[in-house]
Amino acid sequence: MSFPWAKHYQPTSDLGKYMDSRLPLPRFVHGALGAGYPTPKNLNYFYNFGVLAGVALVVQIITGIILGMHYAANTTVAFDSVEHIMRDVSGGWMFRYMHAVGASFFFAVVYIHIFRGLYYGSFKPPREVLWMLGLVIFLLMMATAFMGYVLVWGQMSFWGAAVITGLFSALPIVGEAIQTWLLGGFAPDNATLNRFFSLHYLLPFVIFGVIILHIWALHIPGSNNPTGVDVKGPQDTVPFHPYYTAKDFFGLGVYLTIFAAVVFFAPNVLGEADNYIPANPLSTPAHIVPEWYFWPFYAILRAFTTDLFFIPAKLLGVLAMFAAILLLFFLPWLDTSPVRSNSYRPLNRILFWVFVAVCLVLGVCGGKPAEEPWVRLSQIFTAYYFAHFLIITPLVSRFEKTLPLPNSISEAVLAKYGKPSPAATAAGVGAAAPQPAE
Amino acid sequence: MVRLGALAVGLFFCIAVLWGAVQPRDAVPRDPIKEAHEHPEQIAWTHNGAGNLGVFGTFDRGQLQRGFQVYKEVCSACHSLNRVAFRDLAALGFTGPQIKAIAADYQVPSVDENGEAATRPATAADRLPLVYANETAARAAQNGALPPDLSLITKARPDGTNYLRSLLLGYRDKVPAGLTASPGLHYNPWFHSVFIAMPPPLVADDQVTYADGTKGTKDQYATDVSVFLTWAAEPKLEARKQIGVASILFLLIITGLGYLSYKKVWADIKGKGKSA
User: Fold this and answer.
1) ipTM
2) Cis peptide before A281, with omega less than 30 degrees from 0?
3) Does B262 contact A311 at a Cβ distance shorter than 8 Å?
């Protein structure tokens, strides 16, 4: 699909030839994940996480379908049906723990995948649409995970649903009506649980569809790589199969080993104890916290404590929380440096790691009760979060002196293995000259 | 344009959030409850295995049976265990006839031949019955407090097993200065609000006479019943760890083979780089 030297699919068996002239599915797979996809040969282990995310989704779908056979989406029995799965269904405890832990692992993998994209500039032209499709997947994942957490109908499920749908009530005029419409009532109840179950079952398949678009958009320009330099010729690539199928298999083994360790030895370590208490609309938990993967955004939501002019603090928090994600869609036009990889951007590389630290601190703040020092800490770091993307990144990408880029991927690989590079040109510096934003 | 818009939006959110950050904070008054609150005492549990890590370890059947006896003779006066069925007690090492005999001591709701509400002796298939018919009945009998069902109690509290043991042993007569117990509440620094409606359930060292001859102490009762309720909340704990160890071993072998094939597949590419 992408490069002229890509291996063409040659059916060998009679059945293969028969199918190829009728439904060329093997040809499609060959081009997408097989030997027909030339891939940069210098990808490091961080490039395993796309495949890991795909596997994590498949694990969620398979375990979820099995859980759905035993789960009852009705407020009177939902919690009991989960306990029925845990106690009476054969292997039910295993599928339920895999599904619950699997959600956390899916997010962990996707976060690493996103940060990898940030570090190596994978969102830059010509991969902007690929990046934005990934963000759509991320948004769908957040909606799916939130609704799935509600299905348990424990205390944190119920109060989480109340808090998150309550965010919409901050919108002026239409807010209350939107919240009522989302819940199907004035508080989380059976109508809420039913629609969340319906959507929780639907959205993973929507995610699956967007992933197909994401992979399609990946195959047009081909994968980015740690140098950020474009593929120049066949010497820069290896066929995806067997090179990256072998590497991904190994990476998948490591991932599944860690996953199994948590599922079997500490399945509740990532969850809240309060969610083992059945939902009680009359008793509010002392600390309502979402799952860990929402903590940075929860910290941003709660960081806005004072009204600004006529805008109430709650509305500011809600706008900021949504803006924190939506601004990522504009990143390809905010970071205009022609150098993709932070390996050749000394200043931006430091700022990247500062940003990672800021996200981690926001995560810690989001999991803590809304008291000092956590509130002030989340306020300072929220300010930095926005400043990073909206102020610092555009400026740095304009004025940064970048390092010389290697002429090609294969040259960089040779340099790494000890052979002096023939001519590290100043191409990178030249290319970093300021460019207008539009 | 994009960057100018971004600058405006960025400044807006930065100013809005930092405006909140520079506001003076109200002085936080000392919270005597928070200061009195204690974290659960950590002890080694057989079901947490070597190093108390939670990787290996099985329940001690004798301890589970003793814990069940404590639950039955003490806790079950007020607390139900409604997610556990009598048949599940086989995991404690009871035989079929023993389980039938245990179940027969309990009465469960039923209907008689005329369709009138009645009770009948429980069978192995029944769940341990509720103590009170509903929440209102429970609160009416318990001075307004609600004794929770204990089926999930060790998973519904952080560090549940240690918490439960500490709580059961944690009643103190001396209330710290600044705190006063309301009538009907008891001071227990391990409870989240440090005042608990439950009166001390374990009052004397020979309160329960163990069938297996183990010496009865308050510490022994609290430890045994905490293990029993850990089993009640997580009855598949042993199967989970066994499958876990087998899975990890399998995955390590597969991953090791995967690593070797990865190295073999890439040998020509990486080798070229090194030799060239």
Assistant:
1) 0.93
2) no
3) no
Q: Using CA of residue B146, residue A283, residue B191, residue A262, what is the dihedral sign?
A: positive
Nearest residue in chain B measured CA to CA from A336: B3
Does A24 touch chain B if contact means CB atoms closer than 8 Å? no
pLDDT, one tens digit per residue, over A249-274 is 999 999 999 999 999 999 999 999 99
Query: Is A394's CB within 8 Å of B255's CB?
Result: no
B183 touches chain A (CB under 8 A): no
CB of A387 less than 8 A from some CB of B:
yes
Q: For residues A424 and B47, is the Cβ–Cβ distance under 8 A?
A: no
Task: Tell me the nearest-neighbour CA distance from B254 into chain A, angstroms.
Answer: 7
Asked if A261 reaches chain B (Cβ–Cβ under 8 Å), the answer is: yes
Whether chain B has a CB inside 8 Å of the CB on A438: the answer is yes
A409 → chain B, closest CA residue: B273
Residue A411: closest C-alpha in chain B = B273
**Could you report the per-residue pLDDT of B100-140, keeping only the tens digit for each?**
999 999 999 999 999 999 999 999 999 999 999 999 999 99
CATH label, B39-83+145-232, candidates 3.20.20.60, 1.20.120.1730, 3.90.76.10, 1.10.760.10: 1.10.760.10
Nearest to A246 among B15, B265, B274 (CB): B265
Q: Could you report the per-residue pLDDT of A363-416, keeping only the tens digit for each?
A: 999 999 888 889 999 999 999 999 999 999 999 999 999 999 999 998 888 887
What are the residue ranges spanned by the domains of chain A? 34-232+239-417
Residue of B nearest to A374 (CA): B21
Distance from CA of A397 to the nearest CA of B (A): 11
Q: What mean pLDDT do residues B213-237 have?
A: 95
Point out the residues of chain A with pLDDT beneath 50.
1, 421-438
Please tell me whether B75 is known to bind a ligand: yes
User: How high is the pLDDT of residue B272?
Assistant: 55
The residue type at B15 = I
How much is the pLDDT for A419? 54
Q: What is the 3-state secondary structure (H, E, C) of chain B?
A: CHHHHHHHHHHHHHHHHHHHHCCCCCCCCCCHHHHHCCCCCCCCCHHHCHHHCCCCCCCCHHHHHHHHHHHHHCHHHCCCCCCCEHHHHHHHCCCHHHHHHHHHCCEEEEECCCCCEEEEECCCCCECCCCCCCHHHHHHHCCCCCCCCCCCCCCCCCCHHHHHHHHHHCCCCCCCCCCCCCCCCEECCCCCCCEECCCCCCCCCCCCCCCCCCCCCHHHHHHHHHHHHHHHHCCCHHHHHHHHHHHHHHHHHHHHHHHHHHHHHHHHHHHHHHHC
Of A263, A371, A414, Cβ closest to residue B273: A414
Q: What is the assigned CATH class of domain A34-232+239-417?
A: mainly alpha
The full set of domain ranges for chain B reads 39-83+145-232, 85-127, 236-276
* Nearest-CB residue to B248 (from A86, A250, A260): A260
A-chain CB neighbours of B259 within 8 Å are 250, 253
A177 and chain B in contact, CB less than 8 A: no
Q: Find the helix or strand (DSSP H, E) in which A237 lies.
A: strand A237-239
